[in-house]
Write a structure and sequence with these properties.
The protein has 159 residues and is of the alpha+beta class. It is built from five helices and four strands. The chain is elongated, with a radius of gyration of 20 Å.
Length: 159
């Protein structure tokens, strides 16, 4: 079920490349090279190696969910009726197919999973919870926490 991740050895230049791209994933290789103190070709080679090794998994646009009308965030605790490996794998596969679930984490606690769910409003969340999340394989119970304000989110810039 769990894939073992092998750590990649990074030097200071690699770390600077990663940090620069986390800050601005759209910068050109020329700008990136200047930012980290390398010439273009070695920077490009390092960038390719970071991508091939999986350190850099890809690039994407960061959108403002509120401007898309998707600013309701809820966290759902999910307790399963069984935690055998086959059951966990079945749940994991099924939860990945729910587009409203932004994140899913297996938790060492009194519940088994914590889901971050983004919807337009509480009514839509209620539908997602009742028709999709509660219907996932082996779900015994759920508990919901609604976010009142997002202070810091993955990919968000600190002010």
């Amino acid at each position: 079920m769990n894939k073992l991740t092998q750590t990649v050895d990074l030097d200071d230049f690699d770390r600077k490349i990663v940090a620069a791209l986390v800050e601005d994933g759209r910068m050109t290789v020329t700008d990136l090279a200047g930012a980290v103190g390398l010439s273009k070709t070695p920077c490009q080679m390092r960038l390719r190696r970071l991508q091939e090794s999986g350190v850099i998994r890809g690039f994407r646009a960061m959108v403002d969910p509120a401007k898309l009308g998707m600013d309701h965030v809820a966290f759902a605790e999910v307790k399963l009726s069984d935690t055998r490996e086959s059951v966990l794998a079945e749940f994991n596969d099924a939860v990945r197919r729910i587009p409203e679930v932004e994140e899913c984490h297996m938790i060492a606690s009194s519940f088994d999973y914590l889901l971050k769910v983004r919807t337009a409003d509480i009514r839509r969340y209620r539908t997602v919870l009742g028709e999709k999340i509660s219907s996932l394989p082996h779900v015994a119970s759920t508990s919901t926490f609604v976010a009142m304000e997002t202070v810091l989110e993955a990919g968000g810039r600190r002010k």
